[in-house]
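User: My instructor asked us to take a sequence, write out its structure as tokens, and then describe one feature of it. I'm not sure where to start. Here is the sequence I was given:
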Amino acid sequence: MRARMPTEPKLLEPPSCRPFATECNALLPGMEDGVGRYRRDCQVESYILNSRMQCSKLIRDLHFITRPLSREEEDYPLAFIVTVHKELELFVRLLRAIYAPHNVYCIHVDNKASSQYKAAVLKLVSCFENTFLSSRSETVTYGGFSRLQADFNCMRDLAASRVGWRKVVNLCGQDFPVKSNLELVRYMRSKEWRDRNMTPGVKQPASMRHRTQLRHREITGSHVALMGAGLKKGPPPHNLQVYFGTAYYALTRDFVDFVLRSPIARDLLEWSKDTFSPDEHYWVTLSHIKDLPWIIDRNSMFANKFESDTFPEALDCLEQWHRTKVLNQATVSIEPSWLLATQSNSSRGYFNDTAGA
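Assistant: Let's start with the prediction itself. The structure tokens for your sequence are:
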């Protein structure tokens, strides 16, 4: 049984937020010609940086969903690792999209982020009992071991969490979900993936072997360079077959326990320290030695790497489409503060046409 959406009142004054692009019409149900929708929050950073604002008001004004939307989701909590260093508004919109009170979230803030950015993230995270900063922060370098270490730090913290999460998903602060939390849960509980990792990859192709056959060094916070004139590395430990794939994953809790405790995993981690972009081979290689299959990019769960100054309307559309889907799937009553947009010239709520009785 779907919940009925609350009616959003007509705007009494011209909206200050930018309207959704007309291209959104095809994605958002119930749109009428001549009816504009506007985001309800266009000053996210000022909301958070206002040190006098109480958490209860901040959570409400930023439209976070504060109750489980279904028993099915509540019974299958997820863990999330989010690495961030810039674009505060995009991070807030990502966290709002994936947040559920029964899940748990570890946020890794890059050491090189500004003090103001760190303070803003800390203020937001401190408002939630199930969201915390990583106990150890890295200065992350693109292509360096520090990126893998940042995930590892959060993974250790999550392993000690009292939340009985079933799988962990890693993201960066500029990603955005395509699936709702309910769809993620159903996908991960499906027969195909119930007890399996999602670590896309293939046997390391010849064109990528230089990443693990030559030694590299990380110039902290800058770049990764070859050591010397191309010093060769020794073979991977335990005669492992190296696989190559994406740095993104969804891992079972049993697998995470294996990664944190196994000498094989520890030896591969040590061997990977002078490779290039080790996060693109570490997880998928370990997943294969556990005889767990992988998935080639299909039925995507998240869209990656948004930029606030590059067609921001695209994220506006995706965010509204995602929230509409999330609320339409809810089996509980919907709070008015959970709505992300408002309608400009009609007294009818924009969800009324799509909500079930």
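For the description part of your assignment, you could build on this observation: The first strand starts at residue 37 and ends at 39. Try explaining in your own words what that tells you about the chain.
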